[in-house]
Amino acid sequence: MTHAVTSDVQKAAPATGEFRRSWPTLIFSTIGAGVGLSSLGYILGTLVVPLQTEFGWGRGEINLASLVSSLGLAAALPFVGRFLDRFGVKRVVMVSVPLFVIAMILLSTLTSSLATFLSFYAVAGILGAGTSAVTYSKAVVEKFDRRRGIALGIVAGGLGAAGLVLPPLMGVVIADSGWRAAYLVMALLAALPFVLVFFARLTPPSAVAAVDRSTLPGLTLRLAIRRREFWSLCVVFFLLGWALLTMIPHFVPLLIDSGVDPVQAAFLSSLVGAGTVIARPVIGWLFDRFYATYVAVPLFLAAALGCLLLLWAGPGAAPLTALLIGIGFGAEIDLMSYLSSRYFGPRAFGALYSLVYSVFMIGSAFGPVFAGFAFDGTGSYTIPLILAAVMMGVAAVILLTLPRFSRADVR
Hints:
mainly alpha, Growth Hormone, Chain: A
């Protein structure tokens, strides 16, 4: 049974009208998601070997950056979610984007030790929380109902495009100008949403402040955290975050260890983004027409198979594995925002989705770090790959046990 009932105005509007009215919001959100905090996960893999070479850090130590930034994000997101519900997307973006840009500049100019490197990543996670997918999903959920699935899929495709474009771009930048230049390029890209926000046709802050949220449909925060659906989603996306993010920052060093040229390894890694870019809009379109869980579960199982293929077949399976993981990652982000909107409704969507996303980020932080230390201890990625496959299988089973939300809301 669903607890999210959309407004009569939204339900009465033609589905095509949603895109006609709200395409600036969709473009803003797609680009913002691609160049926000989440992009750091895609570029870290290209930085591992250069950082090892300059500072002598281990791969587990370098991947602590993912851990501290994700924990910083997880700590900040519940506050960001409440700010989004209270003040709106525009105000959050106008504060958070400049702070995130500053964090990128600090990483480029002041990193001199592992302590400073990790500190700046933690700062980026906290100050850049408003540049995460939670903010841009909130903007889309406010504008789309009948085509919410494909709209969220397009926005999530921004993350996939980052995975497709950023690794080879940073590989070229690093080869030409060094790893510090990569963070300066990221700072320039991260500033784009600050310009686009003025053209995005977002709900005005005055209108957000005027809304009595107690009159909106959906669950309150207090009621939602008492329900099984909320905790099931938290467990599922913790497992999927750990499993699917485990190998993304390790893909490039794994291939380099196998004798692949670093620039070629970066291009192969970008296939994760290719799979995501292709999958997310298609998956979102399917969510609007079929029961979302039944669409996503087979894709997670395929991604689990991809991890095992990388283990059994080695680098020769890297292109297929990258595509399967990318497709699974595409289904994951889509499903997280989509199910949150359908089970929770708009009343406290920012706060509730931010909590689910925080748990997802904690899982995605520990997965790569565990894989890095497992490699440092054993000299291989066997244990992390097997664990990731098992986690995706468990998450699929839990998803299949969730109660169905009403088909009437999937429009």
